[in-house]
Design brief:
About 35% of the residues lie in helices and about 20% in strands. It has about 120 residues and is an alpha/beta fold. The longest helix is centred in the first third of the chain and has 14 residues. This is DsrE family protein.
Length: about 120
């Protein structure tokens, strides 16, 4: 199954991004599933590298990195990056600057699109 996750919320402060990534990671590890993540709005910050979280708290960077290692594809809204001063070079390895055009293509590609 091909699943697109569109994440909107900041990586920390609510658990929406965390819960979306938990589900995406579970699906990505299962045989026959393809997962794509599109980070838009405040979720663009989720792909920023070198996140430092207190011991015992979830780390969104780690979750995205594991998802990528399991074949997940991560796109980050370019205009959202610009609005937040996020440079392409500061994205985690495997994530890429993306666009509304790519989101439209991914939406057409997906069997299911889930929005968090």
């Amino acid at each position: 199954m091909k699943t697109l996750f569109i994440l909107n919320d900041a990586p920390y402060g609510s658990e929406r991004t965390y819960n979306g990534l938990r589900l995406a990671g579970t699906l990505a590890r299962e045989q026959g599933n393809e997962v794509r993540i599109f980070l838009i709005g405040d979720a663009a910050s989720a792909a920023h590298g070198q996140q430092k979280t207190p011991t015992g708290y979830y780390n969104i960077e780690t979750m995205l990195t594991l998802l990528i290692k399991h074949g997940g594809v991560v796109g980050v809204c370019g205009s959202c990056m610009d609005a937040r001063g996020i440079a392409t070079e500061s994205l985690i390895a495997g994530a890429h600057r993306s666009s509304m055009d790519e989101l439209a293509q991914w939406t057409a590609w997906a069997d299911k699109a889930l929005v968090f």
